[in-house]
Write a structure and sequence with these properties.
The protein is an alpha+beta fold. It has one domain: Alpha-Beta Plaits, CATH 3.30.70.100. About 40% of the residues lie in helices and about 35% in strands. The protein has a 6-stranded antiparallel sheet. The chain is globular, with a radius of gyration of 15 Å.
Length: about 140
Amino acid sequence: MTRREFSAALAGVTAVWASVCGDAAPVVILEAIAGAHLPGTLAITTKSPEELRRGLWELRTYRGAAPALASHLARVFPRAGIRPRLQDLLSDNDSENLSYFIPFENLTARDRAWTAVNADPQWTGAGAQFQSYHFCLYRSV
């Protein structure tokens, strides 16, 4: 997923949320603290700004792996304590990409969760086919 595609997808989600809520919601700015190939800054409209200002957030995009990957991760993520706030399937030419926006309390919690994913038997059997990904970690400014 390109930066433009992600920005458009996230803008669509936040625009829908704002129109459902019926009024303008606050915007929270998140800055990248690690990672590459994804936006360095995110501006997210939300009715829960306090949630976005806590901890850190990981934006992870798997290239050309959806929807097979989505079904694997739907079983593995809960066991690892990963509960994405946004999951988005985007078509990019002839490949499908899968993006997750995942909250973590801190870097230790993130490391613990991804260690659990990598040790999960359902993931170790299938994970090799889903290696192409980008990620970025964000914190509130």
